[in-house]
Design goal:
Elements: H1 4-7, H2 21-32, H3 34-60, H4 68-75, H5 95-100, H6 115-133, H7 136-145, H8 147-157, H9 162-167, H10 173-189, E1 209-213, H11 219-226, H12 230-236, E2 251-255
Antiparallel strand pairs: 1-2
Helix pairs in contact: 2-3, 2-10, 3-6, 4-10, 6-7, 7-8, 7-10, 11-12
Length: 263
């Protein structure tokens, strides 16, 4: 474990996870290498779009606010990113897990790419995992490798200590690295000035109002009514796949607040 003397100089994340030497190695990568600093800078800039949304949602669920850095490791705060395994969105939900938490995927839309809905689903999922496993490092591990798979490893190796499971190589290599990466990202994000990131300019946070439109309405019609380009409408609604909102009953889209009355 990392020395208490070194950690005493840092603001620690508000989730209670022991700081391992592996986490400190990732901190060094993010802060002392050109590639690591470049990655963290890009992720930090994009975080500005979603930090208010995520923190507000985590407060509503009474969860540690530093859980937002899970999204940094999952997606780099890119709501449109897709993993080789098929995970999607800010929180990288696989389709079956997303559907458990209300994220529907159809030929018209993919709720996993909806920052608002996916963040609520992630908060719900993380809370469920924490309540089941009783620690955030195991909750993170289950988020990465799957609930049932982690239960199987715990039963097989007879321990609920994440670091012991890692030491015995009971976990997939990706999962053993995943938890320290979250801790490292949270450590750096909580100590930007110490690590020389205090001057990074964050992107403007997303602001939106909700507008119910008839099912099947063309996005071009909505954009024209709101007085905005279609591209801007799509950026606010990255979950919409086609040129129409899903057919059926009224569908809620996000538009700029200043466009609501006109729309």
């Amino acid at each position: 474990m990392a020395s208490q003397e070194a950690l005493s100089q840092l603001q620690l994340p508000d989730f209670n996870v022991a700081i391992s030497n592996r986490a400190i190695k990732y901190v060094r990568f993010l802060t002392r290498t050109n590639r690591g600093r470049g990655l963290f800078t890009a992720w930090l800039k994009r975080s500005g779009r979603y930090v208010d949304l995520i923190q507000q949602t985590l407060r509503e669920w009474q969860l540690p606010e530093d859980l937002m850095w899970v999204a940094m490791i999952e997606s780099g705060f890119d709501p449109a990113i897709k993993s080789p395994a098929g995970a999607m969105g800010l929180w990288q939900f696989m389709r079956p897990t997303g559907e458990v938490y209300g994220l529907q995927v159809t030929r018209f839309s993919d709720d996993r790419k909806n920052p608002v809905q996916a963040t609520r689903a992630a908060a719900h999922h993380l809370r469920d995992l924490y309540q089941r496993f009783g620690s955030w490092d195991l909750a993170f591990a289950a988020y990465n490798m799957g609930y049932e798979q982690l239960l199987d490893r715990i039963d097989r190796y007879g321990t609920t200590d994440f670091n012991e499971l890692s030491r015995q190589r009971a976990l997939p290599r990706e999962t053993a690295a995943y938890v320290p990466k979250i801790v490292a990202a949270a450590l750096v994000a909580n100590n930007l000035e110490r690590y020389g990131f205090e001057d990074v300019k964050l992107y403007e946070p997303i602001h939106y109002s909700e507008l119910a439109v008839p099912g099947g309405t063309e996005l071009s019609v909505i954009a024209k009514a709101a007085g905005i380009p279609v591209n801007r409408l799509r950026k606010l609604n990255p979950h919409l796949i086609t040129k129409h909102v899903p057919p059926g009953s009224d569908y809620v889209v996000m538009i700029p607040p200043e466009s609501l009355s006109r729309a």
